[in-house]
Amino acid sequence: MSLRRRRQDLAAAQAAHRAQVVATTAAGRRLRAEIENGLTPGRVLGAGLLGGLLAGWAAPSAKASSPGLPGRLLRLLLDGAFDNLRAAIAAGAAMAQAEDETARTSGRGDDA
Asked: Is 112 within a domain?
């Protein structure tokens, strides 16, 4: 095998390696974005529950069905659960609409 042939093989292997690194990096970025998008509704829900808990703790309502800390915590969680769920669903719908609009205006039509 000549030196010229070995250099050609080496250049081809390096080019293939660079292409694989670029593809792997892009796939990692897409995966990271999907993970962040998937966690967003959970963060909204968690923040809403915590905010409701703190607001109820600071100004409790007169509708306490059972005395003591367990009853208060249960009431606070149930009071805000449906509102937080609706907020999480609305946030997901808004995110999907924004992604669709971005894909439409970029002219690609797909995020591949």
From this structure: no
CA within 13 Å, CB half, 106:
11
The helix or strand, by DSSP H or E, that contains position 20, with its residue range, turns out to be: helix 3-58
Amino acid at residue number 61? S
Is the entire prediction scored with pTM above 0.70? no
Q: Is residue 80 part of a domain?
A: yes
Q: Which two tokens stand for residue 51?
A: 């905010």
- Domain annotation covers residue 111: no
32 is in which domain, residue-wise?
Answer: 3-103
Sequence-distant (≥ 6) Cβ neighbours of residue 45 within 8 angstroms: 84, 85, 87, 88
**Count of domains for the chain:** 1
- Compute mean pLDDT per 10 residues along the chain, 112 residues long, and list them: 91 95 93 80 77 72 59 74 79 84 71 47
Number of alpha carbons in the 13 Å side-chain half-sphere of residue 80:
23
Q: Is residue 110 part of a domain?
A: no
